[in-house]
Every structure is written in structure tokens, then in C-alpha cells.
Design brief:
The chain is of the alpha/beta class. It is about 35% helix and about 25% strand. Helix 1 packs across helix 2 and helix 4 packs parallel to helix 7. It starts with a strand and ends with a helix.
Length: about 210
């Protein structure tokens, strides 16, 4: 069975919302929990305690990423501070399953914004992510990249009638489009967008 994974942006550290966050996560019965905007270290530690999970927290240049698992987290690297290209956070960790299988996991939080310069910044960041995980692709080691990429899927339909004013401004500033190259770079590298794979129509229209 593949691992059950929860990827969750808990917003501004989640402070004051521990009970709600714990309820959402626990209901999913996850094997791996990836949190972004996890800068409240006390909340992350208490969440891990409640769920009976191991955890690691990596504070980036802005915001933080965390990984929780009922399985052993063997090692971790805080690429959010090591990689010059990263503006938010990027955690790499190795989880060991009960059968002894090694599962590398990347928890990624990329630059936000829908303007062309924002996409260019994300392209630099995702290039760093892809370089970091190249070793796993070359060895054909199953691994997971998750988190908040702040990017649109290349096939997603942008419904301007439902878009926020900031998105409409970006659409106009970009000449009538929203750039889509970051997710495409991940697809080109061989990664599978799980929402598109499981519920393609929802991925295109949500």
C-alpha cells in the first residue's frame, strides 16, 4: 500500500487553531504529514505529541516547513536556508517505513504571486528542488514532493468571474494570462500531480 500523505498549509503558524488542525489531520489517518507555514514550533511539537508522531521542523528564510510521521524520521536537511534560490522554506527528510523501506520526502513552500517575475522566481526555486532530488530520480527511488508550490497547473482553467481582484490584476499585467511553467517543469521531470491523476476534472476546474 502506498503511504497516506497529508499536505497542509496551516497559515501563519496555525497559532490558536491547534485543536482544529489536529482534528483535520487525525481524520485522514496519515503516514506522512507535510506542514507549511509551520513557524509555531510549540504548536508543531504539541500536534506531533497528540498524534503520536515523530517530527522535524525547518525554519526557512520566511515561514517554516515541518514533517510529521508515526514512522521514524531518520535524517533531514533544511534546504530553505542552504539554497540561495529559496525565499520561503524547503525541507528534505527521510522516513523509514515499518518494513524498513526508505522514503525521501520534500516539503516545499515556493514564492507567491501570479505576475511573470513571480513565476520566474519560482522557476529558480523549483530548479533547486529538482537538483536536490535528482539523486532519487537517477536511482529510481520512490519519493514524494509536496507542500505549497503557489503555482497553477498548466491545464487548469482560470475562471475570471470567480478570481480575486489580485488575480485579475495579474492577468491584465501579464497580457491576459497566468504563467504555468513551474508545475510543467515538475511534470517534465517525471513527477505525477496527484490531484490530476485522481480527479482530473477537479484539478482542471477548481
Amino acid at each position: 500500500m502506498p503511504p497516506r500523505v497529508v499536505s497542509y498549509n496551516i497559515l501563519d503558524g496555525g497559532t490558536g487553531r491547534l485543536d482544529a488542525i489536529a482534528a483535520v489531520v487525525e481524520r485522514q489517518r496519515p503516514d506522512v504529514v507535510a506542514l507549511v507555514e509551520a513557524e509555531d514550533a510549540g504548536l508543531v511539537a504539541e500536534l506531533a505529541r497528540r498524534l503520536g508522531m515523530d517530527f522535524v521542523l525547518a525554519v526557512g528564510k520566511s515561514h517554516a516547513s515541518a514533517l510529521l510521521s508515526p514512522w521514524t524520521i531518520r535524517q533531514s536537511t533544511n534546504h530553505g536556508v542552504l539554497e540561495r534560490a529559496m525565499t520561503k522554506s524547503f525541507l528534505e527528510a527521510v522516513v523509514v517505513t515499518p518494513t524498513g523501506r526508505v522514503l525521501p520526502v520534500g516539503v516545499v513552500h515556493l514564492h507567491a504571486g501570479a505576475l511573470e517575475p513571480d513565476e520566474q522566481k519560482r522557476e529558480q526555486e523549483v530548479a533547486a528542488v529538482l537538483r536536490t532530488f535528482e539523486k532519487h530520480r537517477e536511482r529510481e527511488t520512490p519519493h514524494i514532493l509536496c507542500g505549497d508550490f503557489n503555482a497553477n497547473h498548466p491545464t487548469q482553467v482560470i475562471d475570471l468571474e470567480r478570481a480575486k481582484p489580485k488575480t485579475l490584476d495579474a492577468w491584465d499585467a501579464n497580457g491576459g494570462m497566468i504563467p504555468r511553467r513551474v508545475v510543467q517543469a515538475l511534470l517534465d521531470a517525471g513527477y505525477v500531480d496527484t490531484l490530476s491523476a485522481a480527479r482530473g476534472n477537479d484539478a482542471d476546474t477548481t
